Amino acid sequence: RCAILVHAGVSPARVAAIAGLGAEIIRVDGTYDDSVEEAARLSAARGWTLVSDTSWPGYERIPGLVMQGYVAMVDEALAAMPAPPTHVFVQAGVGGLAAAVAGHLAERLGARRPTLVVVEPDRAACVLETARAGRPVRIAAGAPTVMAMLECYETSLVAWRILARAADAFMTVSEEDAVAAMNRLARPEAGDMAVVAGESGGAGLAGLLRVAGDAGARQALGCGAEARILVFNTEGATDTARYRDLVGLDPALVAGAGSAPDQ
User: Fold this and answer.
1) 261 burial class (0-12, 13-18, 19+ CB within 10 angstroms)?
2) Is 71:99 a contact under the CB 8 Å cutoff?
3) CB-based contact 243:206 (threshold 8 Å)
4) Which domain covers residue 126, as residue numbers?
5) Do 187 and 240 belong to one domain?
6) Dihedral angle at the C-alpha atoms of 51, 141, 167, 193, nearest 10 degrees?
7) 22 and 150, same structural domain?
8) Number of domains in the chain
9) Angle value at C-alpha 198, between 152 and 7, nearest 5 degrees
């Protein structure tokens, strides 16, 4: 049995998909961080096991196990690449995914580890503000972001311990940047494969595209013509109607055609 707490920003289509797998849905007014707090309260009151991807003092083991699960994709990527990447752009909500990628690359590659750039929505940049403060912080909630899966306002304690040592740069991307990355993946250049990426899934690519268009940022990161850059798409079209609105194509067409038609 499973109860999933969803906050006000989760779209009805995503809620329906979760419910379709058999979970009990508990709606929580407020933000993702509010839903985490309510999940912790309910779990303590009802004797449930709390499974969260973010951590706080006294609750670290299960989030650590969640983070360990992320490293599988890092190993798969390294096995598929002819040489290790020189740069990695990885998206962050509470920071767990980014920390898992950063820490595992540091462990696997040691002194050859790539420059790692953490990318967040500019409307929910708690990890960037944590980096500026030098300690985990909670920022004020503002306008919602299209990158709903990254709309988090407090950094994970376990994640920050790793990112403080293994991340090299922190940056944000705009709403327009995220949508542009989705469209870039759906309409690839000749010879490239079309990829269905959700609003949050392509945020790492959105960060790369921002850097690629900024000579100063490229120089600061040492990101030149010889760079081998790795990004991860962590979300498909989890809200099909929303994907069609933002990209103008059906995700099934993009996924099935290999390359999307010119439109």
Assistant:
1) exposed
2) no
3) no
4) 64-254
5) yes
6) 80
7) no
8) 2
9) 35
Q: Do 33 and 83 lie in a common domain?
A: no
**Separation CA 256–CA 97 (nearest Å):** 28
pLDDT in tens, 57-116: 999 999 999 999 999 999 999 999 999 999 999 999 999 999 999 999 999 999 999 999
Angle, alpha carbons 57-60-64 (nearest 5°): 150
Does the pTM exceed 0.85? yes
Q: Are residues 194 and 68 in the same domain?
A: yes
Q: What does the pLDDT read at residue 189?
A: 83
Q: For residue 239, which of 13, 17, 19, 16 has the smallest C-alpha distance?
A: 13
CA distances to 23, 31, 103, 148 from 16, rounded to whole Å, are 10, 19, 34, 16
| Same domain? 68 vs 155 | yes
Q: Which two tokens stand for residue 202?
A: 């392509």
Residues 138 and 171 in one domain: yes
* CATH number of the domain encompassing residue 167: 3.40.50.1100
Residue 262 lies in a domain: no
Helix ranges restricted to H, the chain = 12-19, 32-46, 61-80, 96-109, 126-133, 157-166, 175-186, 203-212, 215-221, 240-247, 251-257
Question: pLDDT tens digits for 31-58?
Answer: 999 999 999 999 999 999 999 999 999 9
Average pLDDT, the chain: 94
User: In this predicted structure, what is the pLDDT of residue 257?
Assistant: 64
Whole-number Å distance between alpha carbons of 171 and 206: 11
Same domain, residue pair 29 and 137: no
**How many angstroms separate the CA atoms of 211 and 228, rounded?**
14
Is the separation of the CB atoms in 70 and 215 below 8 Å? no
